[in-house]
Write a structure and sequence with these properties.
Blueprint (H helix, E strand, L loop, with lengths): L28 H9 L3 E9 L2 E2 L1 H10 L11 E7 L5 H18 L2 E7 L1
Parallel strand pairs: 1-3, 3-4
Antiparallel strand pairs: 1-2
Bound molecules: flavin mononucleotide.
């Protein structure tokens, strides 16, 4: 996926991205989403926490609601989902969420990889 590609890794844990509905001056959501708007291909990675996508990634998707209009149209999306012992249902739900996320914003979902 990344072979021979120039890429930048962003760790959501390094940024203050508050919950949807919160409004704090030091929020860094815009900084991160602007970087996403600038690329052709996005690979989102999440650990499995509590049988789901982790809070940081889910929150990042929540925050795009109402902000993203057509900025992601045509971008390619991959999803990397890792758990210590994820069940098939969990993997399918993560894949489904990302497929719907891509569909909502006009991205081309190229699928999930998992351990
Ligand atoms: C709060 C928390 C909840 C977790 N819940 C699950 C879970 O429901 N299913 C699962 O397969 N792994 C679960 N894990 C394991 C993580 O997915 C795993 O630690 C993560 O993918 C990183 O892998 P590593 O510990 O080998 O680096 C959980 C870990 C944490 C910290």
């Amino acid at each position: 996926m990344l072979r021979n590609q120039e890429y930048e890794t962003l760790h959501l844990a390094d940024y203050k991205i508050y919950d949807y509905g919160q409004d704090f001056l030091d929020d860094q959501f815009k900084e991160v989403i602007q970087k996403v708007f600038a690329v052709d291909t996005l690979a989102i990675g999440s650990p499995v926490y509590w049988h789901s996508i982790n809070g940081l990634v889910r929150n990042f998707l929540d925050r795009q609601y109402g902000v993203v209009t057509d900025q992601l149209v045509g971008k390619k999306l991959y999803f990397i989902f890792q758990g210590s012992a994820p069940t098939q249902e969990v993997l399918e739900m993560g894949d489904y969420t990302m497929c719907r996320y891509a569909g909502l914003y006009g991205m081309d979902y190229l699928g999930m990889v998992n351990n």
